[in-house]
Amino acid sequence: MHLLTLIRTNTYLKIMARFLEKRMKRYLLGGIRYILKAPAPETTDSLVGIEKILIIRPNFRLGNALISTPVIDAFRERFPSARIDYLATDKTWPLLQQRPVDHFYLLSRAAILRPWQCVTLCRRLRAQRYDLAVQVSGGSTSGYIVTRLIGARYSMGSRKGHQRWYSIEAEGKSSHAYDAIVNLTRPLGVACRNRPLLQLTEQERYQAMTKIQQLVSLHSDLSSDPGFIAIFVGGHQDKRWPLAFWLMLIDAMEARKIRYVVFLGPEEFRLLAPIEQRLMSSLYGSLCPPLPIRHFAAVLERARLLVTPDSGPMHLAAALDVATISLVRQKKSLAFVPREANDTILWRPEVSTVIEAIRANLDGQNPTTPVQPASVTNQPTQWVTPPNADHLYSSY
């Protein structure tokens, strides 16, 4: 098994790797702040003659990349004739296709073991002489380091603490990650979508329908109705749910004759065998093997709704305007879950509660009031809400 794959799929190795990564970034950040003086404060009125813009979000998590997507359109609207480049990762780049970006620079996970690649990339970016560098996530140390090192004429990002980090700073505190993107673009005076965005091609939609028909054909009596509930089994560490929960949910879906498709990510390979075995006698469910991310997105777009933990596919559903039932285990997840009128947020639910929420959604009734940005206390008490969730998301 490749070393990086081993780290991603082993909880203890992942925790240790993140600790070392944060420690290294902290030293780099301290060195940069010591060597480079804080940028002079500017306002958006200073943004004249902007011809080259770099949007910076080198993160490997699908959800974080999706959350940033509305920024691209906002800057394109504000600077229609400018060249807009984007620093992403090779893992998240497919999600940014079809957006109005002129050129992508990609960071690979291999750079973790080959740091000289990062140095080469920064030199290439610095040579472009950007007029404006936009750091999308105020909490991203790597993004901030790139922002300072490339030497753009202006830098822009979310306010962080009492020190100045960027020449143009937007409001840093938000109760939800989606609102942080809106706050970042508000000084531009243009509209910004308050949830992720993904644009599929007609070819991708056609391929998705073919895949769905293959899955549905496993149950010939249901082939006339390709509608299904998507269930994503996965998530990071403390956000994921145990295998026993998913097996009980599968049994409950079968008992209530609800058509469903189970999706697993590439890091959930240990769950494949037991779920596959449980579905061998299924009358209403199918298992979809891991797909390329855009192919998976096109299939997900056809789902009636998605049942999921706090995960990348959760944000993917939000980007596609697919209804979600978010299964929340940690308070911090409440700052990331979709919160539109057709979305449902369940706090540590029992399987019976999930089934009830699915039924209510299929019947056109949302069983919960949409969660407001600063609080979750308006949810019905039968679903046992966590403590107050004010200011869950912040760039501090």
TrEMBL record:
SUPFAM superfamilies: UDP-Glycosyltransferase/glycogen phosphorylase. GO terms for molecular function: ADP-heptose-lipopolysaccharide heptosyltransferase activity. One of its GO terms (cellular component) is cytosol. Gene3D superfamilies: Glycogen Phosphorylase B. InterPro entries: Glyco_trans_9, LPS_LOS_Heptosyltrfase. One of its GO terms (biological process) is lipopolysaccharide core region biosynthetic process. Keywords: Glycosyltransferase, Transferase. This is Glycosyl transferase. It comes from Vreelandella boliviensis LC1.
